[in-house]
Amino acid sequence: MTWKLCAGCKVNLYLDIVGVREDGYHEIESLFYPLPAPCDILTVEEIQEEGLRLTSSSAALATPENILAKAYGRFAGVTGFSPGLALHLHKNIPMGAGLGGGSSDAAAFLAWLNSRAGERALGEADLAGLALSLGADVPFFLKNQPAWVTGIGEKLEPVPFDLGDYIVLVVCPAVHVNTGWAYRRWDELFARGRVRPRKELTPENSPIMSLCFTKPPKLWNGFEEVVFQEFPILYGIKKQILEHSADACVMSGSGSSFVALFSSSVYAMDCAREMRSLGHACHGIKSGKPWYLES
Q: Which of 16, 40, 105, 137 is catalytic?
């Protein structure tokens, strides 16, 4: 029997580093918003041989270090449920784009494994704990609803937030930004007084959260100042998007993708055409569903 799982992405409508803990981990505040596109496709097939056989449209991802292989191993270790599976990952969410593709893949696969585990299935809290051991963003994708995120990314507070009034464009330039590099660079600039958090480390009940719920929302990403210095092409892309009368636009995660909100379908389509003409992948979403973009 074969199953197809769709693993969507997330964008950060707000993201700031609000401090660095003594253990070196960064505390953040962020508004995560799930989107159905771009999405990865996981094809799962039951097979006679034991364990997991992982393949991918990107050969470099078909390794034991892939988060999907780790998810299978840890779930099997905790529950004893280890069916023979052939898993193929068709990668559509670009890597190094700030869209959480790997975390989304892991959450989709964990949820599927749990649904098949019968009496050995984990409860919600235990499954979330297992997800967290794989990565800070993985528990978010288990719930897949807008959330205010604090701590090192592990504290989730669901929020009633809907972008249904907007056409959402996700623009994905062919630029890879390494998240580890972005944090290290932020640390360097922070030590030299070149960047600073928007406020002190007070991750609970942030008054900044309310700014995200204005119309249009006030979008912010503290990584932009760091990343744009190294990748000026990304600054230029954001400027071009805003010149197409976007209501708001912000880089997602540590880059390199952008999320842009449009009230006008005409402006959104014009922007998408230009982005694609420049070689940037572009995805449209309206009312929570993929929105057709003309070639």
A: 137
